[in-house]
Amino acid sequence: MSKTEEKQSYYTKAYEILPAPSFNGELYTPETSLLDVIKDKTLRATNALGYPEEQQKSMLQLIEDIWGKYSHYRVGEPPFHSFGAKEGTPVEFQLCWDNKGPSFRFGSDSYAFNPISLAFDPSPGSSKAEFYKTTRKISNYEGVDCDDSIAMEKYFQSVGTFGVGGHVVQWRKGGKPSFKIYFINRPDEEHNLESALKHLNVIEPWEAIKAHFKKMGLSKPQCGALSLDMKDSKISRVKLYVAHEGHSAKVIDETSSIASNYKAGAFEKALKVITGKSSNWENPPVTYFSFFPGEKVPSASLIFIPLIPNLENDAMVMERCREFLEEEDTNQKEYVKGYVEAFQAFSHKPLEKSKTLNFLAYIPGKQFSLNIGPGIFDSI
Fold first, then answer.
1. Is residue 2 pLDDT above 50, yes or no?
2. H helices then E strands: how many in the chain?
3. DSSP letter at 82?
4. In the predicted structure, residue 343 carries a pLDDT above the cut 80
5. What is the pTM of this model?
6. How confident is the model at residue 3, as a pLDDT?
C-alpha cells in the first residue's frame, strides 16, 4: 500500500469496524438491487414534485450510466457499512428548495465494484480509482467543467493526503443536471488543506475563518471535507465543511458571522427549535462556508442541523421542520407544503416508524433541504 493509500485508509477503517447494515425487509425484497431502489426513490420524489416524464427518463438513464454498478448490490446482503448515509448505504438523496424552486439531488460515495469477482471493494486503492473514474464519466455531460477537479486529483496523487469522497448530481424541474465533487479531509493535517486551497486560489477566506475562530477563543476549525462545483472555475464555488463538536448553538451561530450572508441568531434559533437542544447533539451540527476565487471572506454559510437520532422519528422531524420554516417566512408556506408532500411520497413506510432524515440544510430565508437515506436498512 502506498503512503497516500495508507493515509486514505483513515476514512475506511472507522466504517470497517461497524457491522454490515441490517436489511429491514419493508417494500423491497432482499433480491432488489440498490440501483432499482435509487430509481424508485427518484421517481417517487420527482412525481410528487411534478417533474416532466421525459426529464425523469433522462435522470434514470444518467444514474444508470454513472452508477450502474449498483445493479450488483443486493439490498438483502449489504457488503459493508458505507458512509453515504447514516443507515449504512453508499447513497443519499436530497429534497431542496430555494428562490428558484424545488430541486432533487442524488449522491454516492466511491466504493468500487470489481466486474471480475462481482464484489464491492472498499479498499483505499480501489476506492481512489473508482473516484477518479466517476469524475471522468461526469466530464462527458453538457456544462460540466472538470479542470479544477482533475487538477486537485493530480495534486492529491502527488503530495496530498485527502481521502476520496463522492459525487452529487442535482436536477431542477425541467433543467439539466449539475454536479458537485467532494474530497474528504483529515482535520489533523491542516497543511494539506491549506496547500489545496492555495492551489485553487481561495486561501484568503480560510485564513479569515481561522482568524475569526481564534478571536472567538475557539480552537482551530475542523474541516472534514471540501467540495467543488464541477463547472468553470471562474464561477465555481468552493465549500468547506466544519463540524461543531462541543460547540453550543449560540457559538455555532456566531462562528458564521464571518460570512457575508450572516443573519444574527438565525442558526441558533433553528438548532434549538428543531432539535430541542442547544448543545450535546448525538451528531454534531456542521457549517459549510462557501466562497469564490478572489473573495476575502466567505460569501455564504449554511448550517446542517442534525435530525435523526436527535429526534425520535421522521414524523417528529417533519413536524418540527414544518413549524419552524413556516414561522420563519410565511412566503415559504407553499414550498414547505411541497416538501412535506414530496417526502411522504419518497418514504415507503409510516413516518412514525421511519428514521431516514439525517440533516436539514438551512440558509435563513433563502434555502432549505433534507438529506435523506433510502430507508432500506435499520439504523444502528
1. no
2. 11, 14
3. -
4. yes
5. 0.92
6. 40
Q: What grid cell was written down for 102?
A: 424545488
Q: Cell numbers for 202, please give them.
A: 481561495
> Radius of gyration (Cα) for the chain, nearest Å?
20
25-69 pLDDT tens trace: 778 999 999 999 999 999 999 999 999 999 999 999 999 999 999
Distance, C-alpha 29 to centroid of its chain: 27
Pairing of strands 223-229, 178-184: antiparallel
Give whole-number Cα distances, 29 to 47, 66, 376, in Å: 23, 24, 10
On the CB side of 273, CA atoms within 13 Å amount to 18
CA dihedral over 187, 189, 192, 198, signed as positive or negative = positive
Task: State how far the Cα of 66 lies from the Cα of 136, in Å rounded to an integer.
Answer: 10
The percent of residues above 70 in pLDDT, for the chain, comes to 92
Crossing angle between the packed helical segments 124-138 and 53-67, to the nearest 10 degrees? 140
Give alpha helix (H) positions in the chain.
3-16, 34-48, 53-67, 124-138, 147-158, 190-199, 203-215, 249-255, 266-275, 314-328, 333-346
The β-bridge relationship of strands 112-114 and 163-172 is: unpaired
- Residue tagged 437542544 (cell numbers): 277
